[in-house]
Each structure stands twice: as C-alpha cells, then as structure tokens.
Amino acid sequence: MKMYYFTDPMCSWCYGFSPVVKKLKESYPEIDLQIISGGFSPGSTQAITDEYRSFLEYHWRNVNLCSGQYFDHSMKFATENFYYDTEPSSRALVVMNKFLPNRDFEFLSLVQKSFYAEGKDITNDVILAELAAEIGVEKNVFLETFHSEEIKQKTLEGFQLSRKLGVKGFPTLLTMENGIVEVLANGFQPYDRLKPIIDDWLKSLAVAAMKNEQSCTGGTCGC
Hints:
By secondary structure, the protein is an alpha+beta fold. The chain has one domain (2-190): Glutaredoxin. Helix content is 53%, strand content 11%. It has 8 helices and 4 strands, in the order βαβααααααββα. It has helices at 12-27, 50-67, 87-99, 104-116, 125-135, 139-146, 149-164, 191-214, and strands at 2-7, 32-37, 172-177, 180-186.
C-alpha cells in the first residue's frame, strides 16, 4: 500500500514534521512511503534581507515550539550569493531516489538538519554531493547525475504532480486509490493526532479488500 509524502527540503514545517514521518515509517513498515519534493519555491531569487530573515525566524520559532526541532538562527548559509531557491535540494532528493530509494528519507533528514541546524548552503551542488556521499552515493556520480537533463525533468515532474493533485502546502500526506485522492494530513501534525488517521485509512483498505474477496465467491472472478 502506497502513501505519498509531498515535502520540500527547505520547508521549515517539513523539517518539523520529519520526526513524525520517521516514527510513522517505523510504526507502519507495511506502508510504502513515496517521497516527492513538491516545489516550495523553485527558481526563487529571494535574497536573505533583514526583512526576510525576520520572516524566517518567526516561522522557525513556531516550528520549534510545535516540534522541538532545533534551529541555528545565525543562518550561516545567508551569504550575499544565497537565494532561497528550493530546486537544487529537491533535485538532490530525486538523485538519491534514483540510486538509493530506500534511503531517500534518511537523505532528506540529513539535508534538512544540515540547512536548519548547521547553516549549510543546500543550494550548493558541492555541499549536496558531500551529503549524498554520507549516505552512499559517490560525489562525482552524484554531480554528474544531478546536472543531467533527465534528473532536471524528473524534478520538474514532481512539482507538476504536486500542482495537479491540488497540494495546498507542505508537508502533505495523501493516498491515491482508484483515481481518488485522499488527503490524510495537510500541514504539520503531531504523531498522536496523525496515528488514528492512518489507522482509519488502513482499516478502510482492509474492509475494501474483504468486500472484494466476498464478491468473488463461487468462482465469479475466475477467467
């Protein structure tokens, strides 16, 4: 059974949601969690002005209060050449999904921690390559793939899918069953609030499967 997690490495509420997703993955190993970077602000030319720094700090304080996630408010990444462009880190996640799909969440968490807690510039391809190497993708292999047209296109497709499905913000958890999209969580949710939602979804799948089995009694579903 699949669940889709629409996120962005440079979305602070997604960083706050990361421990919840980690617990979800640990508690429900039967769920195939598909991580898609939905595109928070790809291609942005927003510099870290004093006004924008205050904007970020306000949201970071709120995320910290709700999630307990640590933020380094010194923002060492905020050089004069830095822009809040979320496309590179999103593309890095696509690269990781290509080589080590079972470790994509681990990579996402590492990138988030590097940005928010350590102040690393995750719009920089070299820094992203160094982080990928920590997970198991060789730097040169990462960089070659990162700059390929194939990966750029796949990254764009993730942004387009997010818009097509009507994702209103990040983080978002949703399911797609028989062409029907069901949003399970939109925005930050503590685990205790999310768990009963997941349980209800799993129960509905079990009931649907049971009804399908019953409708096939007497060989009516045979060929």
